Amino acid sequence: xxLEDPHQLPLSLGIxxxxxxxxxxxxxxxxxxxxxxxxxxxxxxxxxxxxxxHEIRDIESKYGVNLAEQYRSEWDSLFxxxxxxxxxxxxxxxxxHKAFLRxxxxxxxxxxxxxxLANVAAKRVFFxxxxxxxxxxxxxxxxxxxxxELASTLGVxxxxxxxxxxxxxxRMLSDEVNRLIAESGMISDQDWERVESLANALRVxxxxxxxxxxxxxxxxxxxxxxxxxxxxxxxxxxxxxRRERCYFKGQAEWYESRKVTRRYDYAGLTGRIRIVKxxxxxxxxxxxxxxxxxxxxxxxxxQLFLTNxxxxxxxxxxxxxxxxxxxxxxxxxxxxxxxxxxxxxxxSPTIRVTHGITDQxxxxxxxxxxxxxxxS
Length: 376
Known about the structure:
With about 375 residues, this protein is α+β, with helices and mostly antiparallel strands. The protein has twelve helices and nine strands. The strands form two sheets. A seven-stranded antiparallel β-sheet has the order 6-5-4-1-9-8-7, with helices on one face. It has a two-stranded antiparallel ribbon with strand order 2-3. The protein is elongated, with a radius of gyration of 37 Å. The N and C termini lie far apart (about 80 Å).
């Protein structure tokens, strides 16, 4: 029902009133207020539910400003917020709302773009309502009918309504996938079935961008290496023992820690006594102390084989190496294809895989960890 004054409406947008600024020294010398306060007064008048062309022009005259030109983006944003407020509450604009918005458009020069701004607000409200309706991760005929009716009421086209629905569902699916990845960096077969079930419940297809799809496949591949069935690699370079099976063949570098003397320090108590100019007596002793740092040293590089019993390096340069999983306490992952074999006694080598020939080669660190776990 329209109010007696069509230029006044009770608003509760949740937007704080604009703070006024103190006049600058130049403003005080000229006996005037800060020019920004013209905008602040006009905006606060709107936020308090009043919108009058006459009052806005009085403010512009007093401060010597053109509010429509100087604060165009601010007035556009506020117009959208007001439309959003009305549409959120009522899903439509009644006579009093339209009168208030028309006056607002006249005040700040929005007549040519008011309809477009109102459409932006309507689409935003529709997006929020769709997200609210399917927040439980399910959709049915009744919900879809409700969404279509809401689109009609808000003046949202069928094409926009469909794309908005798909957008909301796509975000829900992405949020679910991101949650799974954040938990362990992997996606199991059961996890992916839940994602597909969510898509079916929402009545949409599982579609992701090429970048997201590649990331999902990578995370599913990681899970497969850690928990799924491993593919056995047939090799002739190494004689396998009874019941020994190879699961990785590739090129790698074998590093071990070595102490390297970097510099020499001098230690001991010393002193010096001056006898005469140019003649000093040195007292005490000075001992030379080597300072050594540990660094990784390349031992050998060549073909690397990971079996269920051993890790083997057939070096083409340097030394060949072999180690049983039983002698290893842990696999410390430094990168997906670089890992340290932690030992209780002796040196703990670091392996850097440079090339692999199997699907399991992309995450050789994970494979090494699994083979260690299953060997115990």
